[in-house]
Request: fold
Amino acid sequence: MTVPGRPALRGGRLSVVWRPRTVVVLVGAALLLFAAFVIDIARGDFPISVSEVAAVLLGGGESGQRFIVLELRLPQTLTGALVGGALAVSGAITQAIARNPLASPDIIGITMGASATAVFVIVLGGGFGALGGFLASVGLPVAALLGGLLTAAVIYGLAWRRGISGFRLVLVGIGINAMLLAVVQWLLVVAELYEAAQATVWLNGSLNGRGWEHVVPVAAALVLLVPAALVLAHSLGALQFGDDTARGLGIRVDRARTLLLLVAVGLAAVATSSAGPVAFVALVVPQIAQRLVGAARPPIAASLVVGAALTVVADVIARTAFPSPLPVGIITAVIGAPYLLHLLVRQSREARA
Reply:
């Protein structure tokens, strides 16, 4: 199938529409990501020049520089890039499924479900009967993933009424998000001082102290789930026209929506377990990427690269623009909160029109 006015690249039975604007956006975002990546590694209490960073990454450099770059800063920056990309792809999928720009994992409660489970493990762990012992045994990332999946299933079930309405999905998700937030607040009240402080820092979405053990789960999730999202992307295009039209185009709507939701929840939950709930990345980035590309729905590939770039830029600001480092989630919240207000105002105007 070809799109009128757009050239297509063909290889055997595969046909891909050539979109120069998308390529330009991807290249520009990749360049911004690379620049922010190098600056984030170079800046800090012990500044290292860009050339010295490059030398270390290529296998050279002094032993002290190698320790700072490879053990302290590179894992943190990599975690930020991977988490930002994972959250952005998750947001692009959920917004496309619901056909609503407000339907991001951190607004509709999926991220809070992962967060509540993770805080439960941090605060209570094995001290809360069989459930606490099980969650503590599987570890923080797996527990957060289970919490995100369970929350997504509850939201999906409550929002289903012979199909999914984007407006109903957002309302149900906001309600579930508020309930889970209350659970998190209760956990912080009953926690010991050290555990409450640890959970509070984690809840702000922090990259401080991230190591290679935080890089591996998110990298594995991206390697497994992003290709699955790209394969299922054609279903997202059909779902934009509604369930009946999608079925007429040969799409198994319930199956496609379930698989896409599993991909989105998996990415959001694993990203949250590695760096905490980095606010608004999943909400803002897909909309920015959609406008940059000029697409009818949030694009997956562009969201991935733009999300990684935005999170690393936010980490540079969080670590270097203030007397003491801030959690990166505070910077992304400052960026994303005004955009959320803009979306709410626009949605209200469209509802009155």
Observations:
- The chain has a mean pLDDT of 82.
